[in-house]
Amino acid sequence: MEVISSSQQDDIYSAFDLSFDYLKRKQTVESQDAIEILNVVSFYHFRNIRVDIFERALENRQTSTTASTFREALTRRLQPPVLLPRFLRRDVADTEPLYVKSALRELYICSLINYEEGTNKFYLHPLVHTWARDRINPSQRKVWAYIALNTLLEAVTLPSGKDHETDSQFLRDIIPHLDECIAASPVEIKIFNSRLGSFGFIGLNLILPTMFYILRAQARTAAKCGYLYAQSGRFSQSAHYLSMVKDLMVQTLGYDNEITQRATLFLADILWGLGQLKDCITLQSQIVEVRTRRLGTFHRETLQAMAKLGHSFWLNGQYVESLHVLEDTARMSSEALGPKDLDTLIALDHLGVTLGSWQRYQESKALHEKVLEIRKDILGEDDLETLTTMSNLAMAMLDLEQREQAQRMMHLVYETRKEKLGKEHPYTLWALCYLSKVHVELGRLGEAEDMLVGGIAAGKRSLGDEHLGVLMGCGELARVYARQGRLDEAEELSQSTLRRVKESRGSEHYDYIFGMWKLGQLYELQSQVARALDAYRIALENTEARLTTEHPLSKQIELRIIALGGFSLPTYEKGADVETDVDKQRSVHDSLWPST
């Protein structure tokens, strides 16, 4: 890479200064707006700047500034001005989105930006990008960084209850610009600790209306940041901003307020994605309690929260609680909302997954098939919720040894998620892990290993070493090693993964119990019966608290201990209806540790 000397840089900067001076001298509205847009994009990443960032911001600004009632007009007059470039601040009602291209043309003519061929995106040469920021007065840089962030977020609308799918490609494309803006202008909510806090938002609005609107704007900014990071799969950053919003809502509106409830439920969804299930379940349980008390058991919003709670119980290995909650939720949703309502379908799909965890595979498959047919008809085949059902159905098929059908369906899910969410999104990586399971069952061990090695590395980059998805991939890779006869490598990886599962989820979690069960089978393959019995006993001891002795896995573990001579008296009567075929002693789609 060629190094530019200080004198060369000065010469280059002088050329840029000439172009800038030309723009200033023109004194047209377009040229002045072009200068401000240049200031804004100097705080974005220099590549892949979408033109429709500014077009969407203008359209959203037009919508938000059109008062439909006297109250809205009065409220708008009381709000402090938002820091935005002038083309978004002046009367925008008659400004066409095409105007943005007119302003950008001024920058293009001066060679300060270039368009990426065949796209609606432009970029700045790195030197132009650096110069554009350097030329801003140092005392004004933080202001322009904040304006850049506001402009970017003005292009984003938070989803409402009626929204279904978003323009995920647009949201992914603007994440690098969000990163740059936040680095220059961190997002904060300055929660007040004075006695005014006891008045909440309503009292604050009456006493200090300006502070009220400032806090509301800060909350909206943090919520949009959390939403954007959630859409791109960066759940840790999302949880950071959504926690800020939730804390402010609790302090100012109270926990029972519906806005607080929605913010809390959104945060719980992100904690679910992070695998922080204890906190997730605590929040969701509180929401179910509040909504049941305020709205009633059969209200849509109560049923939505119940379905989420039941699914969290499943991921946390609390299969008894999950089955109880989801059976009730599915029944009540069907009665109150209708059997084809989208919220009913969510409850049914979650119930199908939990049934699979109880090894009720045919029932699981039937539910997923029912949900898939309706979702395809209502939402389309490539909708994200439809893809979730396809993934669940594929794993139910795999449990029933319908391997080829499972492979075709899971491949479609993986490829579509990769296109819609990106190849390193957590849910894309989850699909990759499921697809690798199918390849293992089909005997394609080399393909499965390649998928898992790359997927685990990507998961560690975006989620961290201890995330559930990363551990799931490690457990699956240990299975591949065992199938390949690489028993020592399988044992080493299994033990290290088990330690991390125990530390992060506890010894009573299903994944730890199942991991010990699989480790015992691995020891049997190595003819180490004593070590196998030790692993089985540890697994069985830990089933009592959460999994319960009624779960099929508990019975399978005990029967295996009996078969190896570990018990003199069986707890379960001889001939009990318990599956003993080692290859069928699991639900493929609910564990880190499929059978070896």
Automatic annotation (TrEMBL):
InterPro entries: NLR-like, TPR-like_helical_dom_sf. Pfam families: TPR_12. PANTHER family: AAA+ ATPASE DOMAIN-CONTAINING PROTEIN-RELATED, ATP/GTP-BINDING PROTEIN-RELATED. This is Uncharacterized protein. It comes from Aspergillus chevalieri.
